[in-house]
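STRUCTURE REQUEST FORM
Protein name: prephenate dehydratase
Source organism: Seohaeicola saemankumensis
Requested output: structure tokens
Priority: standard
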Amino acid sequence: MTHRIAFQGDLGAYSHEACVAARPDLEALPCRTFEDVIEAVNSGRAEMAMLPVENSTYGRVADIHRLLPESGLHIVGEVFVRVRICLMARPGTRLEDIRKVRAHLVLIPQARAFLEAHGIAAEAAADSAGAAAELARGQATDQGVLASELAAQIHGLEVLAHDIEDHGHNTTRFLLMAPKADLTRRSDHMMTTFIFQVRNIPAALYKAMGGFATNGVNMTKLESYMVGGSFTATQFYADIEGHPDDEHVQRALEELRYFTNELTILGVYPADPKRY
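Status: completed
Returned output:
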């Protein structure tokens, strides 16, 4: 198997930054879509995958909750990446020369104050790292790109301004995925992620959640989404603190099973220290 880690986007994307942070020993493999990332691992072209699951500003990443259960992969780690936005341009370009920048649509509003202060127009691009690669191949001396510092390093661009985001809290959470589950206790702070469907009985969700409260299990995430386009089949995605072998987690999961038709653990993994 090739020692690679697959991610969605171009080299220099924030997903690439997550790969470098989690597994610098693996070669990063850029992919066009999330489905391509999963296929790369299942086909053996990569041994791990890095997928974004949620962002502190924009919420959950579309389609990820649907893809994870069907992927055949298991969560073995999490990575929190602070979205630090840099303004970059071709070497020799001055900040006062920049008239327009390109970036992914979600980055532009996050740097609005900086752009307005410098009279710089913004244009949406499909991918910020891809926009950086295009700028590097061209000759423009009045254009820039908003992207990660890693993108500037990879594509030979010069960073004219660091950390230009309006707010310093924007963070994306990524999941490190592998073909084989790792259920070992690898940290004092473990996380467990699972999906479940409640039985069609009154107050099923309320009763199912009761076991976590009475057993002192901290649930850090609970989201619902439709299954198969049905308005009656609802699946829930949950993250809890703890390991399935912990007695209080065992009791909570046993109670949950009583009120569910289906319960699948997607992964057991160490909590990223940045979580706290």
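Reviewer notes: Helices lie at 14-22, 34-42, 64-70, 112-117, 128-137, 149-155, 204-214, 247-258. The longest helix spans residues 247-258.
Form closed.
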